[in-house]
Write a structure and sequence with these properties.
356 residues; mainly alpha; 12 helices; globular
């Protein structure tokens, strides 16, 4: 991409963000003044419970990513996986095009751990499929609690379709002869885009390595449990902040508001943290369920203070610490005075510096 096109895209993205933020501010302003009083009287115990629930949610996703890497034979420490999840969340929630940046960062981290391209692709695909199924299950639970049976059939169709698509992809992967020609074409195209780089892997090597991965039924069961834990703990965070500001929506309303908010945020992936779309869906659904608009706005503001607010702050602290540690390691003088610097052994995968 040429610099003028890059600058134009950056300007357009910034304008879109400013427009959404401005519209949201004008719409929320009358209710934000009323919500300020409720935020000032928020119950600390409920807030701390919400914060703890969000930490459980983040750790559940870190365990899910670690489980998916383990299915490809790569062992990663839970601390490294958790630090990557927090840092990726910070990048995704605070930068334009955050979803793509977060995905790129996680890919680079997995490469630094020694994961191959098929392993990285499997991790992204498996976590995406499991998260989609888990969110659909929560939507079904929400409609059941709200005694709204009209949407249960569509939710069931979505879950079945997602499982069928994942099964079809796995079947194709385990019969690589079908995919060899299209993958070869894509690799040649990628080589041309990179000006004839000759170091790209062969289609046979990629497909054979991917076909060798046979995740067991236990993997899918544990993965779905962790994905459900990730969404459910985040939903518990929302429920706790509602009680913290004095709102008492029904459990079914909270389920539906949460699913609507997450769906709205995923529909606009270029907006960091679903700016505007998530908040509008959350406040409107809570209000439709009987929560006063001021209370719904206060709950949304407190929820956003935790995620992405405090979670992103922790992620940026981890990113800065990682870069400083890498810089100190590169600049550290040799311990022998006057001696020529000795050749250092290669760093461990977790310690390699990564560009943002």
């Amino acid at each position: 991409m040429t610099p003028p096109r890059l600058r134009r895209r950056t300007v357009l993205t910034a304008c879109a963000m400013v427009s959404v933020a401005g519209t949201e501010s004008v719409w929320v302003a009358p209710y934000a003044r009323q919500a300020a009083g409720q935020l000032a009287r928020a119950h600390l115990n409920w807030f701390l419970l919400a914060l703890a629930a969000e930490m459980v949610s983040m750790m559940a996703f870190a365990r899910l990513q670690r489980l998916a890497l383990g299915a490809g034979g790569l062992g990663v420490k839970l601390g490294s996986a958790a630090a990557t999840v927090f840092a990726a969340n910070a990048l995704g929630a605070t930068l334009p095009g955050g979803s793509l940046i977060s995905l790129t960062y996680r890919t680079r981290r997995m490469r630094s751990w020694g994961a191959s391209a098929p392993q990285i692709g499997f991790v992204h695909a498996a976590t995406g499929v499991l998260s989609t199924i888990a969110l659909a299950i929560l939507a079904g639970v929400g409609h059941t609690l709200a005694e709204d049976d009209s949407q249960l059939f569509s939710v069931a169709v979505q879950v079945v379709a997602t499982c069928a698509l994942a099964g079809a992809v796995l079947a194709l992967v385990h019969h690589p002869a079908t995919l060899r020609r299209p993958v070869s074409v894509l690799l040649r195209l990628w080589s041309r885009l990179r000006h004839g780089a000759a170091d790209h892997p062969s289609a046979e090597g990629l497909l054979d390595e991917l076909a060798a991965m046979h995740p067991s039924a236990r993997f899918w069961a544990r993965g779905l449990g962790l994905a459900l834990g990730n969404w459910s703990a985040d939903l518990a965070c929302l429920l706790a902040v509602c009680h913290a500001v004095g709102a008492s929506p029904t459990l079914g309303t909270v389920f539906l508001a949460y699913v609507a908010a997450m769906t709205a945020a995923s529909a606009m992936p270029l907006l960091p943290a679903g700016l505007g779309t998530l908040d509008a869906a959350l406040v409107l659904t809570l209000h439709h369920g009987g929560t006063p608009t001021s209370s719904a706005t206060a709950a949304d503001l407190l929820y956003r203070l935790i995620t992405p607010g405090l979670v992103s702050a922790a992620g940026w602290v981890l990113l800065v610490h990682q870069r400083r540690r890498s810089t100190r390691r590169r600049r550290a003088p040799d311990s022998s005075t006057g001696a020529a610097p000795r050749r250092q052994p290669p760093a461990q995968p977790e310690e390699q510096p990564l560009p943002l």
